[in-house]
Amino acid sequence: MLITKADGEREPFNPHKLVTSLKRAGADKTLAESIEKDIEKELYNGISTQEMYRRAFAHLRESRKETAARYSLKRALLEFGPSGFPFEEYLARLFQFEGYTTKTDQIIKGACVEHEVDVVMTKGDVTTYVEAKFHNTPGFKTDLKTTLYVKARLEDIAAQRKATGAKGSMHGLIVTNTKFTSQAAQYANCAGVELLGWEEPSGNTLQDRIERAQLYPVTALTTLNHREKIALLGQKIVLCQALPQEMEALKGAGITGHKATRVLEEVGALCVPPKSLE
């Protein structure tokens, strides 16, 4: 049985991969295997990964909303669109959790021209200039063109730092909520530009770092509809952890009474790290 990935490629259905993704979200072995069996009965040749996700999510949501929210993390990041601003703010919060000092939307002077940098983060004497490439389509990859212009930008900033005697070292980092093309990854590795995406680098991907930090976006909450999520993002609320202290923001999004209680209950469950599962 072949399934169709977001980029159009086809691959054989792998039940172990589905079970692993469900367990990673916090489902225990029994629940994960039960859902996999149900999904397998519904499969048809060429089914899209999006449709498989939708069905697995529906099963999870019926039993454990907080697990469903973790399972929907990749989709939740896609819902930051169409503007990339919430993604940049979200990354800044994630890097702050990791011990960095961050600033968003900075104008940095280069030797030749000024550059708009999405996130500038510092730790000790190291400054990292971050290019955030947000996509709201799962099959869209960050390509070679992006790594080429980021490298040129970094060289211009480095030349200015050298000319002015700036202290410390600098790095460049490209972050995407989807994937990189193989050419982009090859060039970045050769040119010394760091990449962070849904599958890069191995063992320390964007998904890995979010799950370690337990910093889930408001768009992951299953108790919110699309309009409510957009209303909260419009008020610059990007983390679900912030909602208990942002009751006015909830009210501004039209979330009151019993609905607000249910939302906060889900926040309380989601923001507790999942149990380590075998």
Shape: globular
Total helices: the number is 12
Strand order of the largest sheet: 4-5-6-8-10
Percent helix range: 40-55%
Give the percentage of residues in beta strands: 15-25%
CATH topology category name of the domain at 85-212 = Trna Endonuclease, Chain: A, domain 1
Q: What CATH architecture of the domain at 85-212 would you give?
A: 3-Layer(aba) Sandwich
So what's the CATH class of the domain at 85-212?
Alpha Beta
Instruction: Give the structural class.
Output: alpha/beta
Helix and strand element order: EEHHEHHHHEEEEHEEHEHHHH
The largest β sheet comes out as: 5 strands, mixed
Task: State mean pLDDT (0 to 100 scale).
Answer: 90
Distance between the termini: 28 Å
What is the tally of beta strands? Answer: 10
Q: Indicate the low-confidence ranges by residue numbers.
A: 274-278
Q: Write down the Rg.
A: 20 Å
Task: Give the SSE map.
Layout: E1 2-4, E2 10-12, H1 15-24, H2 29-42, E3 47-48, H3 49-63, H4 65-71, H5 73-78, H6 85-97, E4 101-109, E5 114-123, E6 126-133, E7 141-142, H7 144-164, E8 169-176, E9 179-180, H8 182-191, E10 194-196, H9 206-213, H10 226-234, H11 247-252, H12 257-270
Parallel strand pairs: 1-3, 6-8, 7-9, 8-10
Antiparallel strand pairs: 1-2, 4-5, 5-6
Helix pairs in contact: 1-2, 3-4, 4-12, 7-8
